[in-house]
Amino acid sequence: SSLAAIAGGLTAFVFTNVSQITTPLFLAFAAGMFIYISVADLIPELHSQYLRDTRWHQAGLFLVGIIVVWILGFYLHA
Hints:
It is a single chain. This protein has 78 residues and is an all-alpha fold. It contains 3 helices and no strands. It has helices spanning 2-14, 23-46, 55-75. The longest helix is centred in the middle third of the chain and has 24 residues, at 23-46. The radius of gyration is 17 Å and the shape is flat.
C-alpha cells in the first residue's frame, strides 16, 4: 500500500495541469472510499452486545461528524 501511495502521488503531480477539471471528482471519490471504510469498520461494532447500550450515542456522534463536515464544506467553499 505504501508503494501505491507513492505511485498515486507521483501520478497526481505529473498530471496536475491536465486534471484540474477532474480533480473534484477524484477527491469526492477518495472521500467516499474513506467514508465507506470507516463505516464498514464502525457498523459491525455497533451491533455487538458490549456496545449495544451506547449504540444511539455512537450513531449520534457519527451524525454530528457528518454535520460538522457539511458545515465546514459550506463555509470554506469560498
